[in-house]
Amino acid sequence: MSDQDPKDKDIPAEQLPAETTPAETAPAEGAPFRESSGHSLPTDIPPVLPVLPVRDVVIFNYMMLQLFVGRESSTQAVDAALNGNRYLFILTQKDESVENPGPEDLHQMGTVVGILRMLKMPDGRMKIVVHGITRARALTVMNNGAYLECRAELTPERAEHTGGLEVEALMDAAKGMSEKILNLRGINSQEINQALGSVDHPGRLADIIASNLRLKIAEAQEILDTLDPVRRLNLVYKYLSKEVELASMQVHIQESAREGMDKAQRDYFLREQIKAIRRELGEGGTEGNDLDDLREALTKAKLPPEAQKEADRQLNRLSSMHNDSMESSVLRTYLEWLAELPWSKMSRDTLNIKKARDILHEDHYGLEKVKDRILEFLSVRKLNPGSKGPILCFVGPPGVGKTSLGRSIARAMGRKFNRMSLGGMRDEAEIRGHRRTYVGAMPGRIIQSMKQAGTRNPVIMLDEVDKIGTDFRGDPSSALLEVLDPEQNFSFTDHYINLPFDLSRVMFICTANTLDTIPAPLRDRMEVIALPGYTMQEKVSIARRYLLDRQISENGLKKQDLRLDDDKVLELIAREYTREAGLRNLEREIGSICRKLARKKAEGDKPPFGVDAELVHKLLGAPRFLDEKLEKVLQPGVALGLAWTPAGGELLHIEVTSMPGKGAVSMTGQLGEVMKESAQAALSYARSHAKELGIAPDFAGKLDLHIHVPAGATPKDGPSAGVTMAVALISALSGRPASANLCMTGEITLRGNILPVGGIKEKILAGVARGIKNVLIPKQNRKDLEDIPEELRKQIRIHLASSLRETLDLAFGKKTRLGR
Prior knowledge:
Elements: E1 48-54, E2 64-69, H1 72-83, E3 87-92, E4 109-120, E5 126-143, E6 148-155, H2 164-184, H3 190-197, H4 202-210, H5 217-225, H6 229-281, H7 287-301, H8 305-319, H9 326-340, H10 353-363, H11 368-383, E7 391-395, H12 402-413, E8 417-421, H13 429-432, H14 445-453, E9 459-463, H15 476-483, E10 492-493, E11 500-501, E12 507-512, H16 520-524, E13 526-530, H17 536-554, E14 562-563, H18 567-577, H19 584-602, E15 609-610, H20 613-620, E16 638-645, E17 648-660, E18 665-668, H21 673-688, H22 690-693, H23 699-702, E19 703-708, H24 722-734, E20 742-744, E21 747-748, E22 754-755, H25 760-769, E23 774-778, H26 790-793, E24 797-801, H27 804-811
Parallel strand pairs: 1-3, 7-12, 7-13, 8-9, 9-12, 14-15, 16-20, 18-19, 20-23, 23-24
Antiparallel strand pairs: 1-6, 2-5, 3-4, 4-5, 5-6, 10-11, 16-17, 17-19, 21-22
Helix pairs in contact: 2-6, 4-6, 7-8, 7-9, 8-9, 10-11, 10-12, 17-18, 17-19, 21-24
């Protein structure tokens, strides 16, 4: 109730009944202040008083209260009062969340109190008992460097009052209302009524009653601010009336609950009699006990009214069936599912944004834009817990941390986490459940996940949502539409449960490697967050911070057993033994090294083991990936392109050769339809601009062309190779070599325009990894450069082009000199 730290917020202040502690009560030992009879004030109250800001309490005259003091400035203010005349000026904070309030954060009207007792607690806090003496208005609040102090104007209560019979009637009504509240609460009110009956001043009566009412801070402060005693008593009477209504309603609720308890006791007695009858008839056993346990479990589950009605109906059916019947087994399983589902149990969200940020930084390196979006999502949940919010979908190559991000979100929110893989799912019943018409029927995966989580508001990760199939058994992706729609999932009905279950509190997070295979209606319900691949520097940093220590621990080694001081060794492992956008294979190779070193240690070799490039090659064998040696000069008909794959970016060598013939065009390398159309568009552009490109105008009737993309065993498709094909084709026909230090990507049109493509970051990563120093991308992809880290931009020069003419000038070196 005072200025305790947040960790002390739940410690209640012990409020002594104000009506039993009149001002004439003797103060604690050593207390220097005195209050004479009547309404006169002590004469030793100084003009400047130490200020004690309090959070969630308003102190009135004649009120005794126990406070816990924890803030440093507040403890110094109490010490200053104890070293003086033991007087404090207590002011209530306007906003209790302010940790170090200043003068502007405090109400102007407060109470001068005397300190009766003080006790220092083992944890450094103080426990003080104070006694309200008089109201006072803060004139000037100052900070002396150690605590707040204030020059206050005392506003004592006038000893006499006017108002006649009307005021006396109001006082009697207030006393009668107070007696009624005490009777409703079941409190022996004889002594309290005598104490209230002896009060003959409306202001004093108002303060005594207000100090014992359950008022909000704003209401209590309003009473404290009211100096006129009659107006103050009228205000207190209004709140007294409200309290009487509330207490009457509570009594009514308790009586209704008691009647329900009486009925439950009667039902219990009758059920016990039924058990006894069955035992006498030889029909006993464990069936009755099982039914009682099931009934008790259903009661504890706190089912909604509709579900409770159905459970009672099925329970009555079960009680009349033979225990060995097939239908009895099906019905019992159904009721057990109803009892085990979290109909009302919810975990309490701990939406501490700073803690969530620390958890995300602790669990993941880089991915700043992704983390910012997650923190924005959590901030909205904190400010508006009832908001439905979007369904997040993390899209990126394998191994970039999609699933672990979902786990971090659950940890940051303090919720249960459950992962559900949808890869290869083809049966709609996997989502909606099987109908309860045969033995072995089960609820769908969604309801199963809710049961496993044990709460109504878990974080459920729908993994591999892009790999859902469809066949004659239905379309699971269509069933997911209801699950992921905030306007529908508050009453999701599983075929097995056959009752509406509220999924609106569940936070669904989907993951996918690509958006292309996700149906459009399902994709429309999700907010896509892209997780591109990692740069080499990021891979090395993640391996150093997370992967290495984890593999050392999992393989039975100690950190000091392995000495790997050079990051170039980790870079060598990533470059020569993995070829991926994520980190799975990198961790696998690091684990392989740790296993081999663990074997050495087990065989008696003494650690530490120094890991260098030579040892890596010895333990892992010959490098699995060797970059093709980049030619300093490309042959005519060859151009370097960039492609996106689910595993990251790739560098493509597109080759075109010409030979005498009649204009036939052949394409090899497992090219898809879209890629073949790009080649046709490039050929049409070359024919329509042959003269200005320096190509023989009649080449189409005299030459055959062969377009080939190496790695022929790998299917390839997409429009982004169009610009590369055009450059390679024109290079072959004109005899001019393209730059060996330039890679490119972009879709082309028949008019020679270059259109934007996707996967820019992954493609640039591939170019940097292969040592290319220049990359050409469509001008309309300028917006994607915001996602390129600064350290990556320093390693490659990015050129923007809007037409094929600009690209050709750059590729053949007419206008721009490309340096290494």
